[in-house]
Amino acid sequence: MQYRRILLKVSGEALAGGKGFGIDEAMLAGFVAPVKAAHDNGAQVGIVIGGGNIFRGISAGSMIDRVSADHMGMLATVINALAFKGALIAQGIECRVMSAIPMATMADPMVSEKAVRHLEKGRVVVFAGGTGSPFFTTDTTAALRALEINADVLIKATKVNGIYDKDPMKHKDAVFFPQLDFDTVLKMNLGVMDAAAISLCRDHNLEVRVINIFEHDSLARLLKGEEIGSVVRARRVT
User: Fold this and answer.
1) Is residue 73 part of a domain?
2) pLDDT in tens, 178-187
3) Considering the chain, what is the average pLDDT of its residues?
4) For the segment 169-213, what is each residue's pLDDT rounded down to a tens digit?
5) Do 130 and 141 meet the contact criterion of CB atoms below 8 Å apart?
6) CATH, residue 226
7) 144 lies in a domain?
8) CB 50 within 8 A of CB 230
9) Sequence-distant (≥ 6) Cβ neighbours of residue 118 within 8 angstroms
10) Is the CA virtual torsion 125, 120, 87, 102 positive or negative?
11) Are 177 and 28 in contact, with CB atoms under 8 Å apart?
């Protein structure tokens, strides 16, 4: 395979589906199917899930302070991680949830060496609780966890087939970018991931792929070497 160990970043909001809130089991199944296929083909899979389907943060003037709101968002990712774990186990795949926030009755503590051992034993690992600190997004968590487990690539799962200059769901004239370097993504503010996450990937030369996870076999085809979606990597020196 093109990649042996991957970190898959999944949107929490996408799990809500048409319901707009909570977990839509059909959407959950849509995410689990490609993960199962990748696992069955021999890939080691780590997952970071957002919490936007449970808690979307605060608006200006909210009586909830930013630190409390971020902690609430971290707890929302634990709910999604447990749902993902249950769905994977139902498909016969061993799975562990590892949380940056201590909660021993529900999840293992986040320890990178233990996460790697789980992956090497064929278990899917779902990372929950964000970074454990406020002011960091799950995009940054995904970059951090990918580096901690020495992943070959960070794959961002979306509803579109890659990176565009604007939302292709709203703009028919949106321009598709099959390949970009990190500095260009930051300069153009393309919104692939937040700036902290992109900078972290750039500084450690971690390749980022953006694919439509719901496109038939997209993840499996990417792992086998097909040029699926968009790729962000270090600028090549000529």
Assistant:
1) yes
2) 999 999 999 9
3) 93
4) 889 999 999 999 999 999 999 988 999 999 999 999 999 999 998
5) yes
6) 3.40.1160.10
7) yes
8) no
9) 96, 98, 125
10) negative
11) no
The tokens of 172 are what? 């028919």
Expressed in angstroms, the distance from the first to the final Cα of the chain is 28
Nearest CA to 180 out of 195, 197, 164 is that of: 164
Domain count, the chain: 1
Residue 108 lies in a domain: yes
* Per-residue pLDDT reduced to its tens digit, 57-80: 787 788 999 999 999 999 999 999
Task: Please return the burial class of 56, using the count of CB atoms within 10 Å of its CB with bins 0-12, 13-18 and 19+.
Answer: middle
- Match 């951090």 to its residue by tokens: 144
Please give the model's pTM, rounded to 2 decimal places.
0.94
The residue assigned the tokens 């789980």 is 118
The values of phi and psi at residue 62, to 5°, are: -65, 150
The pair of three-digit structure tokens given for residue 25, joined into one six-digit string: 């089991």
Place of tokens 């500084």: 203
Beta bridge partners of 163: 177
Strand partners, 153: 6
The C-alpha atoms of residue 139 and residue 195 are separated, in whole angstroms, by: 9
Query: Does 146 reside within a domain?
Result: yes
pLDDT band (50, 70, 90) for residue 237: low
Tokens 């929302």 found at: 76
Residue 238 has pLDDT above 70, yes or no: no
Show the domain range for 112.
5-233
Residue 75 CA to residue 109 CA, distance in Å, equals: 14
pLDDT for residue 167: 86
